[in-house]
Design brief:
It is built from 7 helices and 8 strands; from the N terminus they run βββααααβββαββαα. The chain is an alpha/beta fold. The strands form 3 sheets. A 3-stranded mixed beta sheet has the order 1-3-2, covered by helices on one side. It has a 3-stranded mixed beta sheet with strand order 4-6-5, with helices on one face. A two-stranded antiparallel sheet has the order 7-8. Helix 4 packs across helix 5 and helix 5 crosses helix 7. The longest helix has 16 residues.
Length: 214
């Protein structure tokens, strides 16, 4: 800052985001940083790392690898992830999803798959088609809200039934095999998960078509 320039006013505070969201923006001579209040009890080095990461983002500069690693290690801890999921359940409204598509009914597929592969052991989560067509993310299991959402892109007569069946089966496996925490690592697809996934008879064909669609 030169003598002719005014030092910016920096305002930083904890904000009740639903998850580990942190933002920073500059307007006129004021810089405002919002840090998720889920970090209130975080160690000082983690908060300092977040501050530097946000400042790098504001200046569009490459952030420190050490800061990135420190923050990722903290965020990946099991107790932190549990707090994030609880926060999302309480703060993040989940729009109701419609499981009855134009072509495929997810409730019927879930019942068939639950019988065939899980012997009715899985409780049925909230099921629904996405509100908008998507390409990059064709399906996901929301741990916080216990919901499975499939992209409405696949609710089309041109999409073979086994593709929808496999994608739903894959997301159902997340109900059977929750995320495991190994140190600071989160293991989403465990060896047990992958072994069960291979039980699907049209695995390779379904994956190949999904790659094409995405």
């Amino acid at each position: 800052v030169t003598r002719r320039e005014r030092a910016p006013i920096i305002v930083a505070y904890f904000h009740p985001f639903a998850d580990l969201t942190h933002t920073i923006r500059a307007r006129d001579s004021r810089v405002t940083a919002k840090v998720s209040d889920l970090l209130r009890e975080a160690p000082l080095p983690v908060l300092q790392a977040v501050a530097r990461l946000l400042w790098s983002r504001l200046l569009k500069q490459k952030s420190s690898a050490d800061d990135q690693r420190l923050y990722r290690q903290f965020a990946a801890q099991a107790d932190v992830q549990a707090e994030v999921e609880q926060s999302r359940r309480q703060r993040e409204a989940k729009p109701p999803a419609n499981p009855s598509g134009k072509v495929y009914d997810l409730r019927r597929w879930f019942a068939r798959l639950n019988q065939r592969y899980f012997k009715y052991a899985l409780p049925r989560p909230s099921l629904g088609w996405s509100l908008r067509p998507t390409k990059r993310l064709l399906g996901h299991h929301d741990y916080a809200h216990q919901a499975i959402v499939i992209s409405c892109t696949l609710d089309d007569a041109s999409v073979p039934p086994y593709v929808v069946e496999f994608l739903l089966y894959h997301e159902m496996l997340h109900l059977k095999h929750p995320v495991e925490h190994k140190g600071t690592r989160r293991c989403v697809h465990t060896p047990e998960f992958r072994a069960d996934e291979k039980l699907f008879p049209h695995l390779e064909e379904a994956k190949r078509l999904l790659r094409h669609l995405s």
